[in-house]
Amino acid sequence: ARRSFAQSAAMANAIKNVTVIGSGLMGSGIAQVAAQTGHNVTMVDIDPVAVEKAQKRIGASIARVAKKKFGEGDDAAKFMNESMSHLKTSTDAVASVESADLVVEAIVENLKVKKELFSKLDGAAPAHTIFASNTSSIPIAKIAEATSRLDRFGGLHFFNPVPVMKLLEVVRIPETSDGTYEAMKGWGKAMGKVTVECKDTPGFIVNRLLVPYMFEAVRLVERGEASPRDVDTAMKLGAGHPMGPFELMDYVGLDTGKFIIDGWHADYPDEEIFKPSPMLEKLVADGKLGVKSGEGFYSYKK
Ligand code: NAI
């Protein structure tokens, strides 16, 4: 069948080769889904141990997906082998972007480190390569400054766990071209995600609403008006939320919550709902970070 010009143009621009930088919680999830959906993926980390662990984690996770999709047998094995054959690993970010159509950065949440990385990649990647950051709390525009491809720069904000969570926030800075934005959204759909569009504002959509909500829950407890347990019960049974705010904070990590609010508070000191919370500060100072440390608002010690 003949394709329309628009379809051909879209296909010519389709993203096939993806380099994911950072093989932690988010990077490994993004790399996994990209490999599962037929992209040629290179997953990079400065830490060779991290990237090796990530590859094993992905193998185990794809095996679970294959079993769920196909049960036991040949189709499951085929899905598993094909997915894994699409995934390469590397510790050399610069070399890994040479044939990339898209680079998704998911390294440590630090502006200076992200800028250093993108500045190096800008000189090494082909002209057509789109750069995107998965940052949760740093303005995309501040990261993009490190490059001379502002029209080919944007945000691709995934949610944890990436293989499970359906949403992808696609973020544009004023300079992002329409072609880049369409390509990013198209890739999101090819990844099996539902995309939403957002400008480069603090927290984008989900975290801009969720983080202040969680801090309001803490403030309510700080004022002695209700207990964490009762707040969680209330929001689950009264608002239909699958998790209460304190369960959610323990799951996300109290250090992450503090990091995000501190960043926003520094940028917008007069904004009441971005103010830090003494109760959360104390928990973090005591090493009570949530599920991952065994204790946060609740105890997870076995
Ligand atoms: P993580 O700590 O699990 O993984 C970060 C990885 O990056 C580590 O393996 C580290 O060795 C590697 N790395 C650090 N500097 C590097 C460099 N210069 N070059 C190559 N690799 C480098 O972190 P996580 O949680 O995966 O977060 C990554 C990014 O994703 C952050 O920007 C964060 O804001 C964002 N994000 C995190 C979410 C979460 O729920 N944890 C949700 C959505 C976005």
Automatic annotation (TrEMBL):
Enzyme class: oxidoreductase
Record-annotated 3-hydroxyacyl-CoA dehydrogenase C-terminal domain positions: 203-300
UniProt keyword annotations, A-Z: Acetylation, Differentiation, Fatty acid metabolism, Hydroxylation, Lipid metabolism, Mitochondrion, NAD, Oxidoreductase, Spermatogenesis, Transit peptide
UniProt-annotated binding residues for NAD(+): G22, S23, G24, L25, M26, G27, D45, E109, K114, S136, N160, K292
List of residues binding CoA: S61, K68, S136
Source domain of life: Eukaryota
Chief site of localization: mitochondrion
Domain 3-hydroxyacyl-CoA dehydrogenase NAD binding: 17-201
Enzyme Commission numbers on file: 1.1.1.35
GO cellular component, one term: mitochondrial matrix
Residues the record marks as site: Important for catalytic activity: H157
Alphabetized GO MF terms: (3S)-3-hydroxyacyl-CoA dehydrogenase (NAD+) activity; NAD+ binding
Gene3D superfamilies xref list: N-(1-d-carboxylethyl)-l-norvaline Dehydrogenase, domain 2 (1.10.1040.10), NAD(P)-binding Rossmann-like Domain (3.40.50.720)
Recorded catalytic activity of this chain's protein: a (3S)-3-hydroxyacyl-CoA + NAD(+) = a 3-oxoacyl-CoA + NADH + H(+); (3S)-hydroxydecanoyl-CoA + NAD(+) = 3-oxodecanoyl-CoA + NADH + H(+); (3S)-3-hydroxybutanoyl-CoA + NAD(+) = acetoacetyl-CoA + NADH + H(+); (3S)-hydroxyhexadecanoyl-CoA + NAD(+) = 3-oxohexadecanoyl-CoA + NADH + H(+)
InterPro entries on file: 3-OHacyl-CoA_DH, 3-OHacyl-CoA_DH_CS, 3-OHacyl-CoA_DH_NAD-bd, 3HC_DH_C, 6-PGluconate_DH-like_C_sf, 6PGD_dom2, Mito_3-hydroxyacyl-CoA_DH, NAD(P)-bd_dom_sf
The protein's annotated pathway: Lipid metabolism; fatty acid beta-oxidation
Gene Ontology terms describing biological process: cell differentiation; fatty acid beta-oxidation; spermatogenesis
Subcellular location(s) per record: Mitochondrion matrix
Complex and partners: Homodimer. Interacts with GLUD1; this interaction inhibits the activation of glutamate dehydrogenase 1 (GLUD1).
PANTHER family reported for this sequence: HYDROXYACYL-COENZYME A DEHYDROGENASE, MITOCHONDRIAL (PTHR43561:SF3), PTHR43561
Family: Belongs to the 3-hydroxyacyl-CoA dehydrogenase family.
Protein task: Mitochondrial fatty acid beta-oxidation enzyme that catalyzes the third step of the beta-oxidation cycle for medium and short-chain 3-hydroxy fatty acyl-CoAs (C4 to C10). Plays a role in the control of insulin secretion by inhibiting the activation of glutamate dehydrogenase 1 (GLUD1), an enzyme that has an important role in regulating amino acid-induced insulin secretion. Plays a role in the maintenance of normal spermatogenesis through the reduction of fatty acid accumulation in the testes.
Protein name: Hydroxyacyl-coenzyme A dehydrogenase, mitochondrial
